[in-house]
Amino acid sequence: DQVPAAQPGKHIRRAGEDVTAGTTVLRSGHLVTPAALGLAAALGLGELAVIPRQRVVVMSTGTELVSPGTPLRPGQIYESNAVMLTAALRDAGAEVVASTMSGDDVDSFRATLSRHAGNADLIVTTGGVSAGAYEVVKDALGGSVDFVKVAMQPGMPQGCGRVAGAGSPATSETATPIVTLPGNPVSALVSFEVFLRAPLRAAMGLPNPDRPRRTAVLTEDLTSPRGKRQFRRGVFDGDAGTVTSYGPPASHHLRWLASANCLLEIDEDVTEVAAGTQVRVWDLA
To answer: pTM to 2 decimals?
Structure first.
């Protein structure tokens, strides 16, 4: 058989076909995807200047807490907040460098906190900030953290400040930021969504730091406490443009939040919302 003659230029990849001299291929603020990293390597770039992931330590407090998978004894509950917040932080793009538990002993809590503070860009604690008898976070950090009551439900008790790592002066400007979230699980995760997720993503230069806000038609009558901005668990139907509250509003009902796809926001000056009203929802999906 006669072999067909070769066509000039066929099966040849010429220099500059993919990227010509002077072409901008990666811009400041571009997310480093696998393809972007491959392109940088193909261009011979051994390094890229990037904004690193925020390194976060998660601490859950309470002598009653035990790790999942461990047999429960009387007076104990399984630790779920650190597990949940670790997943939320990673989903937001952060790197969780430690996830730990601490009991209600102030000295032990301080020692654990000091040990981790120098290795993190942010510390997030949960529990120990309310008005009970054993509020270890409040008792340990009263001089360096501002504890406040926020007019929202769930998630009223909050705190933020800075803590120094072991061997660092307490007044150091490089002290690690700390955010202290409430201990009820729904309060902890809603507080993360409201106060932490967007600024954390913005600090890393990630796109779309805010959860998408939607407007939807409420399918039922709802009441809300006066003077508190309420975030209820909800099911948002994007096709129908409707939202239905899901489960009770109390802050310990984690089951309902696990199956919800949005937070339904009700203003602090509203006590009753009628079915058919346009309301705001935070799209968690």
So the answer is: 0.88
- Report residue 265 as tokens: 């926001």
Euclidean distance between CA atoms 98 and 90, whole angstroms: 12
CA dihedral 15, 17, 23, 29 (to 10 degrees): -110
- How confident is the model at residue 89, as a pLDDT? 97
Query: How far apart, in whole angstroms, are the C-alpha atoms of residue 160 and residue 145?
Result: 5
List the one residue out of 119, 91, 92 whose CA is nearest residue 100.
119
Average pLDDT by consecutive 10-residue portion of the chain (285 residues)?
A: 81 85 89 93 92 95 93 94 96 95 92 89 94 85 91 95 73 82 96 97 92 96 95 96 92 92 96 96 95
Q: How far apart are CA 24 and CA 44, in angstroms?
A: 15
Q: Which of 210, 206, 207, 187 is nearest to 197 (CA)?
A: 210
For the chain, give the DSSP string. -PPPPPPTTTT---TTSS--TT-----TT----HHHHHHHHHTT------PPPPEEEEEEE-TTEE-TTSPP-TT-EE--HHHHHHHHHHHTT-EEEEEEEE-S-HHHHHHHHHHHHTT-SEEEEES--SSSS--HHHHHHTTTEEEEE-SEES--EEEEEEE--TTS-TT-TTPEEEEEE-SSHHHHHHHIIIIIHHHHHHHTT-S--SPPEEEEEE-S-EE--TTSEEEEEEEEETTTTEEEE-S---TT-HHHHHH--EEEEE-TT--EE-TT-EEEEEE--
The strand pair at 77-78 and 65-66 is best described as parallel
Which pLDDT score is estimated for 168? 61
Query: What tokens does 97 get?
Result: 């460098």
